Amino acid sequence: MPQVPVVEGFFDPSIPALLGTRCTECATVFFPAERSWCRNPHCSSSTFDEITLSTTGTIWSFTDAQYAPPAPYVAADPYVPFAMVAVELAAEGIVVLGQAADGTTVADLEVGASVELVVETLYSDAEGDKLVWRWRPVKEA
């Protein structure tokens, strides 16, 4: 059964890593990738380098989703609440939102804690598994 990203171009499940761009003039990093113009108000560039973003970061904020998000999100039936995590990427310093990894609840999360990017199945249909990035707490040694 094929496995494909639920949103094409946001991440590479084979690495796994998020995909972004860096402005060639001011070095501002964007996720998702920017292809039109630099959103930095002090820059007028329209050229970008494609980059692979950090696969680790720290929790900036988190919450739980006690209700099913609207379409196009495909919720399980019956709906199962999940944790959402805002992560400050280790190298880039930008904040990226994503679900917490399967089995992770808000009780497992703490602002400032380390997380790593993982790829998991969001849902499956007749065409195959639809993959999404998620954030998993890093176990301290």
Topology:
Elements: E1 3-5, E2 11-12, E3 17-23, E4 29-30, E5 48-52, E6 56-65, E7 82-89, E8 95-100, E9 114-125, E10 128-137
Parallel strand pairs: 1-10, 8-10
Antiparallel strand pairs: 2-3, 3-4, 3-5, 6-7, 6-9, 7-8, 9-10
**H and E string:** EEEEEEEEEE
- How would you name the oligomeric state of the polypeptide chains in this document? single chain
Our count of domains comes out at 1
Shape: globular
As a whole number of angstroms, the C-alpha radius of gyration is 16 Å
Major pleated sheet: 5 strands, mixed, barrel
User: Low-confidence parts, pLDDT < 50 over ≥5 residues?
Assistant: none
Please tell me the overall pLDDT. 94
Distance between the termini: 36 Å
Strand content: over 45%
Structural class: mainly beta
How do you describe this structure in short?
The chain has strands at 3-5, 11-12, 17-23, 29-30, 48-52, 56-65, 82-89, 95-100, 114-125, 128-137. The chain has 141 residues and is mostly beta strands.
Description:
- This protein starts with a strand and ends with a strand.
- It has one domain (3-137).
- It has strands spanning 3-5, 11-12, 17-23, 29-30, 48-52, 56-65, 82-89, 95-100, 114-125, 128-137.
- Helix content is 0%, strand content 46%.
- It is built from no helices and 10 strands.
- The chain is mostly beta strands and 141 residues long.
- Strands 6-7-8-10-9 form a 5-stranded mixed barrel. Strands 2, 3, 4 and 5 form a 4-stranded antiparallel β-sheet that branches.
